[in-house]
Amino acid sequence: MVVPLTQAIALDLGTTSIKAGVLDDHCQLSTIYTFPAPEITVKQGHYESDALAYLEKTEQLLIKCLNHSDKTPLLGIAYQRSSFLLWEKASSNPVTPLISWQDNRGTSCCEALQVREPGIQQLTGLRLTPYYFAPKLNTLLQEQPELRTGLEQGVLLAGTLDCFLLWRWSGGQYYQTDVSMAARTLLMDIQRQQWSSELCSLFNIPQHTLPKIQPSTGLNQSIFHHCILQASVADQSAALIASVTNDPGEVLVNLGTGGFVMRYLPTQQQLDINNYLRTLIY
After folding, report:
1. 98 with 161: CB under 8 angstroms?
2. Digit-coded pLDDT (tens) for 80-112
3. What angle do CA 231, 188, 43 make, to 5 degrees?
4. Where are the alpha helices (DSSP H) in the chain?
5. Which of 25, 154, 182, 279 has a Cα-to-Cα distance from 188 of 20 to 30 A?
6. Where does the pLDDT of residue 1 fall: very low under 50, low under 70, confident under 90, or very high at 90 and above?
C-alpha cells in the first residue's frame, strides 16, 4: 500500500480532546488522530490540568503525523482560548498548572472593576467576566506575589496555551501569541491591535511581561521537528475562517464545549451590537 506523503498538518487543541489531521500532496485529509486531553481537576471554582501532560500528548500526535512524511510539512494550529499558565524562562518548565478558560478565580477581580466595564468593553469588545485571561492572572498574582516578582524580573513568563507551546517548540526563540488570541484576554485594544497600557494598568498586569502579538497566518517559523508553522489561531476564529466567507449574510454556529453563533461584521457597517461581543478573527 502506498501512503500519501504529508503536505500539511492541522492541530486542534481542545479542552476535552486533542486532534491532528494530515493533508496529503493532493490536499486531501488522509488521516485524523485523536487523544483525550489531560483530565481537568475542579476544586472550588479552580479548573486546572497538567501543562506538561498536554504538551506530551500533543507531541505524540505530531510525531504520528510526521511518520507520514519524508519532507518538512506545513503546520496550522487552532487553540482553546484563554487557558494559560506561568513557566520558568530558563528551563521552560511550568510553575503553575494549565488554568482552564472555565476557571472562575477571577470573579472578585471582575466585581472590583464593575464600574469600569463600559470602558473595558469599548477597548476590547468584550464583557467583563472571569472567563478571560486578565482577571484570572490578576487574582493569581495577588494570591502568589512571588509570581509577580518573577514576571517583573524576567525569570518567569506568562501566556496562553499557544504561547507556552510555541516557546517550548522553538527552544525559547518565540514568545508570542496571535491577534485572535490576544483579542480575548481583556488586555488588547482591538482597534489598535496592541496591548493596552490602560487595560494593563486596570488589571495590574505588567505590560512589558506580555508576549509579542503576531499575525495569525504567514508566520513561516520552524518549530517542533522542523515543522513550518504557518497559522496559529484561536479555535472559534479557525472555525469561522474554515467555514464561511466574509459575506455578512453567512453565519456559523460552532458547537464545542461552549456554543457560539458568529458572523463577520464589515467595519463600515454601523449596527446596534451592544448585546454582542466584538473580536478580531485573524
Report:
1. yes
2. 989 999 999 999 999 999 999 999 999 999 999
3. 85
4. 51-66, 107-112, 117-124, 133-143, 145-152, 161-169, 179-182, 197-202, 235-243
5. 154
6. very low
